[in-house]
Structure formats: structure tokens, C-alpha cells
Amino acid sequence: MSNTSYISRKQELPLKSENTSLFLQIIISIAVFIFAITLSGVLSIDSMISNWNKSILGSITVQIIPVNNTNKEKALAETMAYQEKAVEFLKSVNGVTKVTPLSDEQLDELLSPWLGDDVDISDLPTPRIIDVKISPDANIDFAQLSMDLAQASPQATLDSHKLWLNKLISFADGINLIASTVLLLVAAITSGAIFYTTQMSLGLHHNIIEILHIVGAKDAYIAQQYTKRMGFLGFLGGVIGLFFAVPAIFFIGNLALKIEGGIISDASLGFGDWTIILSLPFFAMFISMLTAYYTVKQTLKKML
Amino acid sequence: MTNNKNIIEMNNVGIRYGQGPEILSDIKLSLPQGSFYFLTGQSGAGKTSLLSLMYLAQKPSRGQISVFDHNLNFTNRDQLASLRRRIGVVFQDFRLLEHLSAYDNVALPLRVGGMDEREIKKRVTELLTWVELDSHMFDKASTLSGGEKQRVAIARAVINRPDLLLADEPTGNVDNIIAGKLMKLFVELNKLGTTVVIATHSDKIINDFKYPRLHLQNRGLHIYYPSDTSMFGGLNV
Ligand SMILES: Nc1ncnc2c1ncn2[C@@H]1O[C@H](COP(=O)(O)OP(=O)(O)O)[C@@H](O)[C@H]1O
Ligand SMILES: [Mg+2]
To answer: Which of A270, A281, A282 is nearest to A245 (CA)?
Structure first.
């Protein structure tokens, strides 16, 4: 017996020796590199937003700045009137579940660490504070709320830190939208590169494909050779891209940590985020295979 | 299957390339199962074109074709592939996959059909030995001589035991002795039930084997039977 069992079956389409392979691999590596970094940005911004959201959601505080008047009694009465207006307004806001003006005792408690126990706050023009509970699924525009509140009760102001966070969240949302567009574009470019190289290759191997058809090959048989090859190139490109992207992500993360204010410290990649990033080569493989399959099927329709 | 079943039927078939004139017009043809035909006509008469309709590499520009009882107007791509698996084709220029071995070329029709590699190995080895190519089994097709390539091409065409065998001037490039051997192979396959159509220029072959002829002339098809001796003497094909 000859050793025919050792024949390694060759693919009918010589796709391994195509010189577009290197081109594709470089394209896919770069695509995955950009994709991974952008994605890590998106994911950490997401975690940052959700941390911020947690601190905003639930409750906000409204401050009533005390009215200045030499007549203490009158000043307090006016301040309380503003508080009443603010409470009334806040109760009418959609998404607000509970509005509680803090009592004198509660205010005392809040202020005593600063003023000491002996000070009677009723002697001082202290701000009044209203605790406002918000339903978790409320979609409140805090900037608008702040303006409306000032309209309803000129002495009332929304907690400025939360207002600022809210603006930051809008900004981060915007960044995320742009980043997501970049992700889509990068995926589209990868897909496009696979589409054109596959189409070119199909044209190049027109004769072989014709013979395959004549001996009875279905389109899926030919498509399979392309999905195999493109899937391999996609995966390899993905691994190479990731190999460079992971250190870059750590590097960028370290830079971000050095930014003051601790804002960025809310941005971190969790286990789930890393799982997504590290699975990018499989994602690249999947896109490559899908595109190749679709391209072959579509192109062959016009052939024999 | 009944005995009078037709493998191929054509009605009002016309072929044209691009916007050119029809090179074949109003072709009407029935090939009964188990029949053996020569296909003749001058160079450029349309033999290769007619064969390409039969092996489903081309659609007619008009008319109806049925192959194995399937009207090609209502046959999708996957069904076409299944029909093609029942057809063996020997091309004038072989059309081997030059970068593959003789073995892989012959195995091709079995592989696209999804046959088990062990069974493929058995069949291909057997057939390549039979056409005396066992010593070249794993040589690349591109390194084989013309005669060797032809035998690979024929082995590829018959490995599937096709119901229909089409050969385009298969004896065009070989000497009379090999031509005779090839013809014997085709005759044997025909006896086993394969319907055979062979396009040829060779007077000698046509005269040696008394099979009916499909003759292409003036864009039309004419059928001559061996008893019709006047046609065999009179036509210079
Ligand atoms: N792919 C093609 N494109 C345009 N014209 C073609 C093509 N194939 C064949 N022809 C023309 O069709 C006619 C018949 O050719 P063919 O079928 O090859 O004849 P034969 O095999 O009998 O020599 C010829 O005039 C040839 O020039
Ligand atoms: Mg010809």
C-alpha cells in the first residue's frame, strides 16, 4: 500500500497564496486596534456615566437662600414663603416622588459640625434645604428644571454639583455616540475590505470556479473555502491588532488616572468589559466569514 | 425509470453570444436514455456551444431545455448543481485544476458531492490505476503530458458513473491507438447505461462506430442514422 492516507487535501481554490492576504491582515489588524481602543473608551465612559447616574438618581437637594432683612422675623417669613413656592413647584414636576423641606432640627443637625452645638440657628440667616426624591426611571432635564425652579421661586437653587454632573453626562453621552459611530465605521471598513478582496479573488479564480460548478459544486461549497480563509485572516488580524491595543489601553488608562478631580477614576474597565475587548478577534473572524459568505453567494449568482 | 425516457429535450432552442446573431436556431432534440450520439459539424458550427447547454454551463437565449426531466426555466442554482453531478464532461482543452495533483482532480466530483474520503481514495486509486496513471497519481496536473492530462480529464468525467457523458473532441489530441482505447471506454460506459454524446471531427471514428450523428449545419441540427449510408459517404465532416 502506498501512503495515500497521508495526502493532505489541497483546497481547490489557492487562496493561501493570494497576495491580498497580507493587505487584508494589515487592514484587519489596524481596524481591530482602533476598534479595541475606541471600544475600551466607550465601555469606560459607560461605567463612568452609570457611576455618575447613581449619584444623581434617587434624590437631589434644593437650597433656599435666606432673604436678607434687618427684621429677622420678616426675613424668615419671606424665606419660608419662597420655600413654600419651591415645594409647590417641585411637587408638580414629573418624576418627583417626594418633596420634604428639612425641619429646623434636621438643619441644626446638618450645620452643627460647622457651627458647634451652642449656636442657635434660628438667629442666623441659614439656607433652608428641601430634599427631593426622584423616581429611578424619571428622565429629568436638570438644566431645564433649574431654570424653571428659579422662575417659580427666585431664591431657590438646585444643587450645583449634580447639575454639573448632569451636564457632564450629556457630554459623555455625546462622546459615546461619536465613538459608537467610529466603531460602526471601522467594522464597515473591515467588511468592505473583505468584500472587495473576495470579489477580486472570485474574478481571479473564475476558471477554477467554473470547473467546480461544472463538476457539481454548489455555491456553498465555494463559499465555504472563502469563509474558512477569510475567517482565518480575520482572526489572525484580530489577534495582532489586540496584541498592540491592550498595552495601549493600559497606557491611556494610566494617563487618565493622572487627571485631577477623580472624575476619570469612575471610569474603569470591568471583567465583562475586558471579556468583550478580548473577544474582538472572534468578532473580526465572524464579520470576515459573514462578509465573505455573503459576497461569494451574491457574486456567484452572476456566474455560471 | 422507463426505457423511453429522454435524458435531454430541447425545443425551439436558440443560442447567441451577446448581441450577435444566433449561431444555432430552432434546435429540437431528444436524447433517449442509454443512447450514443456523435456530434459533428465544421469548426465554428456550434458543437461546443450545444454541449455547453447540455452540461448546464450556459442558458439558451430562447427556447426550452429539460435535463433529467427538469425544466431548466424552473431550476434553482442548487438544483442545477445536483443535475450537474449526474453529468460527466471531457473538455477539448481538459480544464484540469493545474495546481492540484491528478488524484485531487479526479476526486473533485466526489468531494463536491460530499463523499467520505476513504471511499474517495478507493475509487480514485482504482480508476487512476485503470487508466495507467497510478505512478503519476500525486503529480501536479501541470507537470503531466498532454496524453496523461487527457486521461485525468476522462477519469474525472467518469468517476461519478454519470448518467450522461459529454465529450468535446476527446480524441483530438491523441494518436489513433489511444483514440481507439478511449472510444472503447465510452462504449463500455454506454453499455452500462450512460448516455453518451461525443463531438468529433474524425471520419474514422464515425465510420468505425455506427452510432447516429447530430450534425450541425447552417445554424440547424440534422440527425443522421447509420443506415443512412448516403450521408456518411457524402459529407465531409
Ligand atoms: N464565448 C463566446 N463568445 C462569442 N462567440 C462565441 C463564443 N463561443 C463561441 N462563439 C462563436 O459561436 C460559434 C460556434 O462556436 P463553437 O460552439 O465553439 O463551435 P465548434 O465547437 O463547433 O467549433 C462560432 O462562430 C464562435 O465564434
Ligand atoms: Mg469546439
So the answer is: A281
Split into its structural domains, chain A has a count of 2
In the structure, how many helices (H) and strands (E) does chain B have?
Answer: 8, 10
* Nearest atom within ligand 1 for CA of residue B47: 22
* Ligand nearest to the Cα of B58, by number: 1
Host domain of residue A88 = 66-154
Using alpha carbons only, give the angle A40, A46, A51 rounded to the nearest 5 degrees: 130
0.90 exceeded by the pTM?
Answer: no
Q: Which residues of A touch B108 (CB under 8 A)?
A: 12, 211-212, 215
Q: In what order do the strands lie in the sheet containing B213-217? A: B87-90, B164-168, B195-199, B36-40, B213-217, B220-224
The pLDDT confidence band at residue A10, using thresholds 50, 70 and 90, is: low
Question: Are A45 and A176 contacting, i.e. CB atoms less than 8 angstroms apart?
Answer: yes
Look up residue A151 and give its three cell numbers.
Answer: 422662575
Is residue B134, in this structure, part of any structural domain at all?
Answer: yes
Contact criterion met (CB < 8 Å) for A212 and B82? no
Q: How far apart are CA B125 and CA A27, in angstroms?
A: 44
Closest CA to A224 of A7, A12, A80, A53: A12
ipTM of the complex: 0.90
A130 backbone dihedrals φ, ψ, rounded to 5° = -115, 125
pLDDT of A160 reads 65
Mean pLDDT on A13-34: 91
B210 vs A271: CA distance, rounded Å = 81
Is B200 near ligand 1, meaning CB less than 6 Å away?
no
CA atoms within 13 A on the CB side of B34: 8
Which amino acid residue places its CA nearest to atom 7 of ligand 1?
Answer: B17
Write down the pLDDT at residue A242: 96
Domain contains A212: yes
> Contact, B211 vs B36, CB < 8 A?
yes
Range of the domain at B135: 96-161
What are the tens digits of pLDDT across the range A162-183?
Answer: 777 777 888 888 988 999 999 9
Classify residue A95 by its DSSP letter: T
Specify if A162 maps to a domain.
no
Cell of B82: 445536483
Is B142 a residue whose pLDDT tops 50?
yes
SS (H, E, C) A209-228: HHHHHHCCCCHHHHHHHHHH
Q: Which of A139, A172, A177 is nearest to A266 (CA)?
A: A172
- Inter-axis angle of helices B176-191 and B146-158, nearest 10: 0
Answer yes or no: is the C-beta of B93 below 6 A from any ligand 1 atom.
no
CA–CA dist A258, A247 (Å, integer)? 17
Q: Which residues of chain B have a CB within 8 Å of the CB of A300? A: 77
* Shared domain check, A188 and A98: no
